[in-house]
Design goal:
The chain has one domain: Dihydrofolate Reductase, subunit A. Helices cover about 30% and strands about 30% of the residues. The chain has an eight-stranded mixed sheet with strand order 5-4-3-6-1-7-10-9, sandwiched between helices. A two-stranded antiparallel ribbon has the order 2-8. A hairpin with a 5-residue loop joins strand 9 and strand 10. It is globular, with a radius of gyration of 16 Å.
């Protein structure tokens, strides 16, 4: 069975974005990009909420084609163009976009069905609202949480809508030169 993996940055005080959605506090560098690239290589499906999908769609399809594109932009742009995309959204219901599946209802049932299809892992990248919906139904199999060395004091929380206890097992920690700590948990 395919695994649904959440890959997300958080502040030390557990916010994934500031009060107005700002994420300019996230520390990324080539070391972190290379690490995340190994995770994305194990996935053939990207999952997003509508807002994050629209943000990704406005940048990644052509990011690798730009004259000064970084190694990360080239690799991630290639990956993005070639993976299937699943969007959790009520407002995009009925949209017909090539290589995109929109889930508007029966989230739990449709995600369970998707996880049973042949293929590699499914990555949900950021997408706090969609992540909260998936947490509500206990659908996330693995959490890759990148804790940034900053307190932002408020914003969109990492965890929300959790029904009952979810037992996790720490698989591995990684400390990056930027001060970011990567925590990899799997659901028990």
């Amino acid at each position: 069975m395919r695994k649904l993996q959440l890959l997300i940055h958080t502040s030390l005080d557990e916010f994934v974005a500031g009060p107005n959605g700002e994420m300019n506090w996230i520390k990324v560098n080539e070391e972190l990009f290379d690490f995340v690239g190994k995770i994305t290589d194990q996935a053939d499906t990207a999952m997003y909420g509508r807002s994050t999908y629209q943000m990704m769609e406005s940048y990644w399809p052509t990011a690798g084609d730009k004259p000064n594109a970084s190694k990360h932009d080239i690799q991630h742009s290639f990956w993005y163009r070639n993976v299937a995309k699943v969007i959790i959204s009520n407002s995009m219901k009925g949209s017909n976009i090539p290589k995109v599946q929109i889930i508007s209802n029966d989230i739990s049932g449709q995600i369970q069905h998707l996880k049973q299809q042949p293929g590699k892992n499914i990555l949900i990248l950021g997408s706090p609202s969609a992540s909260h919906s998936l947490m509500q139904y206990n659908l996330i199999d693995e959490y890759w949480i990148f804790v940034n060395p900053i307190l932002i004091g408020g914003g969109i929380p990492l965890f929300k809508n959790i029904n009952g206890k979810i037992n996790l097992r720490l698989v591995k920690t990684n400390v990056f030169s930027s001060g970011v700590i990567g925590l990899h948990y799997e659901r028990q």
